[in-house]
């Protein structure tokens, strides 16, 4: 699953560390999600989306066959 986290972080001018604190996970988790090495749980995807005042669909792009 692709995502726009890096792009949205840059627009909001927040670091991976700041985002991780907002959503309650480690910075390493944010790095893994941003790079596509880890797909977040639905709850975490929701919390990340809320941090950007966006919907899950605006942050995460589901690709057929990616799961």
From TrEMBL:
GO molecular function, one term: DNA binding
Domain of life from the UniProt record: Bacteria
Protein name as catalogued: DNA-binding protein
Keywords: DNA-binding
UniProt-listed InterPro entries: Cro/C1-type_HTH, Lambda_DNA-bd_dom_sf
Stretches assigned to the HTH cro/C1-type domain: 5-59
PROSITE patterns: HTH_CROC1
